[in-house]
């Protein structure tokens, strides 16, 4: 069977959804590992990561079942959901890659002011206190707080923010192109006839 045939399209679609399943389980596992070892205490951050992992797992499950059973309705909804996810993910990835230093700094400050639990995690893990200025009167979870010689967290965060945004944007772009591949494979696969089925039946 050539690569454009029914069996090849089915196998490629199954392999792609198995990849999505592994990524979703990895995302859930990393979130659980982070909170289990005390690296992340913010349930909001962990909740978002786990919710994204579960959503990706459900999408992959729908695609996998639709591919194995050649189910027209499941494949249609899978294709539509994948298209919506692609639009959102591609937009976010491009935004991550397009942010300049000033915009990154503003975004970090907004995030710092709106997340108390994540702020504690950052101070503890990066050994810093405060955002722009270290204030000895404010409570801090960092180990350097006892000596009152802490550096503010903004310079450290800004040093790594560009690298993190480029990494996130690059990974997002890579998976957005796999989603385009998934949409194309699903479209082809839906319009192909199963050679084992009744040749006069429309599938």
UniProtKB/TrEMBL annotation:
Any single GO CC term annotated in Swiss-Prot or TrEMBL for this entry: membrane
Membrane spanning residue stretches: 12-40, 46-68, 75-100, 167-187
Bilayer disposition of the protein: Multi-pass membrane protein
Main location: membrane
Subcellular location: Membrane
Cited InterPro entries: Tetraspanin/Peripherin
One Pfam family named in its UniProt record: Tetraspanin
Entry keywords, A to Z: Membrane, Transmembrane, Transmembrane helix
Record protein name field: TSN13 protein
Source organism (scientific name): Thinocorus orbignyianus
Lineage of origin: Eukaryota, Metazoa, Chordata, Craniata, Vertebrata
Gene: Tspan13
């Amino acid at each position: 069977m050539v690569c454009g045939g029914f069996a090849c399209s089915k196998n490629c679609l199954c392999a792609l959804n198995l990849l999505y399943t592994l990524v979703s389980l990895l995302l859930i596992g990393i979130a659980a590992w982070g909170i289990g070892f005390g690296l992340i205490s913010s349930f909001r951050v962990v909740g978002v990561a786990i919710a994204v992992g579960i959503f990706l797992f459900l999408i992959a499950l729908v695609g996998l079942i639709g591919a194995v059973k050649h189910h027209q309705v499941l494949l249609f909804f899978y294709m539509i959901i994948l298209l919506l996810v692609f639009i959102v993910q591609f937009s976010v990835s491009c935004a991550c890659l397009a942010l300049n230093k000033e915009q990154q700094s503003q975004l970090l400050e907004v995030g710092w002011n709106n997340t108390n639990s994540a702020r504690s995690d950052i101070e503890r893990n990066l050994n810093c206190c405060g955002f722009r200025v270290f204030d000895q009167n404010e409570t801090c979870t960092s180990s350097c707080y006892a000596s009152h010689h802490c550096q503010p967290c903004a310079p450290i965060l800004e040093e790594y923010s560009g690298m993190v945004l480029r990494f996130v944007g690059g990974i997002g772009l890579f998976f957005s192109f796999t989603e385009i591949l998934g949409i194309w494979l699903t479209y082809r696969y839906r319009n192909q006839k199963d050679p084992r089925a009744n040749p006069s039946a429309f599938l």
